[in-house]
Amino acid sequence: MNPKRRPLIAGNWKMNHGGKTAVELASGVAKLTASFDKVDVVVCPPYTALAAVVGAVRGSRVEVGAQNVNPKPSGAYTGEISPPMLNDVGVSWVIIGHSERRQYYGETDGGVADKTRAAMEAGLRPIVCVGELLDERERGETLSVVKRQLNAFSSILADKPGFGAIAYEPVWAIGTGKNAGPAEAQEVHAMIRARLREISAALADQTRILYGGSLSPKNAKELLAAPDVDGGLIGGASLKAEDFARVAEEAQRG
Ligand code: 13P
């Protein structure tokens, strides 16, 4: 971490806690992080729990994000949710381009750019995800793959240094218990920041680049110590309030 940037810890609940247990989890996170004044905390429940979670964390430090968004404002798009709908429900963040959406739902670099643009136009703060597959890493293509994914949306951020965040999530580290080492993460984060610097110094200095992929209370300290890691996007460990809060506590400690 770098003291110039306020750390951000976000929990991606994926397709878990879409009902009553969501309020319990969110309330637990709000309670356990209540005294953390040096870190931003965001929880991203499934759509069905967004309104209830927004209500449950009202008045706390915790902010709420969605896990996906359709770039169109309204219309005949069965099953989709638009940026104004997320505004209506009181959501302020949205995860875009998660590898599970790229892998299973055909999300493309172009689609990620459209969603990022639409979310920002609606005043939402995107957490845009990038990351290589295992075979891409093994072929030595990590930096070129991440650069390609980043180039698809980075020009949209040009005059918006405080837009949201970028999450580097190596796909082979997601849900596997096999996190990237601090040096592996730092190499990619540094490349992302260098690329942002080509666009503007303010964008490079202010953008929070999160690490995601088996981030947990066990490895948070060493990963958050990397100079270009500004927080985390957490899956499995965000499903237990205590574990999630312990990662946030590491960020709070700095
Ligand atoms: P895990 O923390 O379960 O590996 O998931 C990471 C992730 O995909 C967060 O978006």
In short:
With 254 residues, the chain is an alpha/beta fold.
Helix proportion: 40-55%
Superfamily (CATH H level) name: Aldolase class I
* Number of continuous helical runs: 11
Low-confidence stretches: none
End-to-end Cα distance, whole Å, is 7 Å
Sheet with the most strands: spatial strand order: 1-2-3-4-5-6-7-8
How is the secondary structure organized here?
Elements: E1 8-12, H1 20-32, E2 40-44, H2 50-57, E3 62-66, H3 83-89, E4 93-96, H4 99-104, H5 109-121, E5 125-130, H6 134-138, H7 142-154, E6 165-168, H8 182-199, H9 201-206, E7 208-212, H10 220-224, E8 231-234, H11 241-253
Parallel strand pairs: 1-2, 1-8, 2-3, 3-4, 4-5, 5-6, 6-7, 7-8
Helix pairs in contact: 1-2, 1-11, 5-7, 7-8
Bound molecules: 1,3-dihydroxyacetonephosphate.
The site of 1,3-dihydroxyacetonephosphate (13P) has 14 residues, from strand 8.
Give an overview of the whole structure.
- The chain contains 11 helices and 8 strands.
- It is α/β, with parallel strands linked by helices.
- The protein has a single domain, classed as Alpha-Beta Barrel (TIM Barrel).
- Strand 3, helix 3 and strand 4 (93-96) form a beta-alpha-beta unit.
- The site of 1,3-dihydroxyacetonephosphate has 14 residues, from strand 8.
- Residues 12, 98, 169, 174-175, 212-215, 233-237 line the site of 1,3-dihydroxyacetonephosphate (13P).
Looking at this protein, list some descriptive labels.
alpha/beta; eight-stranded parallel beta barrel; 11 helices; 42% helix; globular; binds 1,3-dihydroxyacetonephosphate
